[in-house]
Design goal:
Length: 319
């Protein structure tokens, strides 16, 4: 009998959520996603020190400011691209590369950073069709993605927790969204004091199901990629979602499981009426959604800290 991973791949595009391309090679996903925390973790591994050195050498030549802090800051972007290039040698599809989370509330600077990342990939011979630029799902990030999509640069809107964020992304015609299933669950476990939820009642699963049904009911082309999973039950409950990005540990669990795994999400399910959001409505809905407010801020703060820590790590290597 087929493993759960094989059955999942039959109804959903499986994406590896890691910067470790040795793990990616093992599980043969179509795409891969990275974020600052994953890049920082991979950059500390002995087997990737050559890539770190290449990024630092490039930054020394490219940076207008020769100070260690400036070179390290420039090297962070290059390192993300270096990992992306290597990942694309392993996966047949796309890699997601994230814009500096510290720019999450600045549309113009986010667009400029995206252009910079795409230029580095282009110079390395990588088509922009194989890159997804990751941006936080702030109003400013969504507006940046709207501009980039019109330019033919595909975007993955991350740190998505609220329905209003998903609606705004669809209206902006972004390529892909990444609702954070596990982080939504984390918030509800903490706020309610409950020890657990069944997979079908998991708040993160219910959020993604609502978004998926809404997108399909109203004909949006934006794809839904569930992310940030805490357990296999969340994944199997979302079988049929457009894409799921899964950490190597959970991919291994799915590969080791056998039995019948039914598809849970299908186009054609009923959904609510279509919404149209302007910034005022978006801000109001965001303020009313404490979970989304808390988790978006926490996510941006966490990714920003990961970038700062990586810059310090790289600066130390320059000493």
């Amino acid at each position: 009998m087929a493993t759960f991973l094989e059955q999942l791949k039959a109804v959903t595009v499986v994406v590896a959520d890691t910067g470790d391309f040795e793990s990616i090679q093992k599980f043969r996903p179509r795409d891969a996603t990275t974020n600052p925390s994953l890049i920082a973790s991979a950059a500390a591994m002995p087997q990737y020190q050559t890539l770190v050195a290449q990024a630092l050498d490039w930054a020394k030549k490219d940076s207008a400011d020769s100070s260690k802090a400036a070179v390290a800051k420039r090297a962070v972007d290059r390192l993300a691209v270096e990992f992306g290039i290597e990942i694309l040698k392993v996966v047949p599809g796309r890699v997601s590369t994230e814009v500096d989370a510290r720019l999450s509330y600045d549309t113009d600077k986010s667009i400029a950073k995206a252009h910079d990342l795409i230029a580095m990939y282009t110079k390395a011979g990588i088509s922009k069709d194989r890159i997804l630029i990751k941006l936080a799902s702030t109003w400013e990030g969504i507006k940046a993605a709207e501009v980039l999509e019109r330019e033919g640069i595909h975007c993955n809107l991350t740190l998505l927790f609220g329905f209003h964020q998903a609606v705004a992304c669809a209206e902006a015609k972004v390529t892909l969204i990444s609702p954070f299933v596990g982080r939504i669950l984390d918030w509800y476990l903490k706020s309610t004091g409950k020890a657990s939820y069944t997979p079908s009642e998991d708040p993160g699963v219910m959020s993604v199901t609502r978004i998926y049904n809404y997108y399909k009911a109203h004909g949006y082309k934006t794809e839904v990629m569930g992310a940030s999973f805490r357990n296999v039950g969340e994944i199997t409950e979302l079988a049929g979602c457009d894409l799921l990005t899964i950490a190597p540990k959970l991919l291994a669990e799915l590969e080791g499981m056998q039995g019948e795994m039914p598809r849970k999400l299908n186009p054609g399910a009923k959904s609510e009426a279509k919404l149209t959001l302007d910034k005022t409505t978006f801000d109001r809905m965001h303020a009313e959604d404490k979970m989304a407010t808390d988790k978006l801020k926490e996510g941006i703060d966490g990714f920003s800290k990961a970038i700062t820590d990586l810059e310090k790590q790289l600066e130390t290597k320059l000493s």
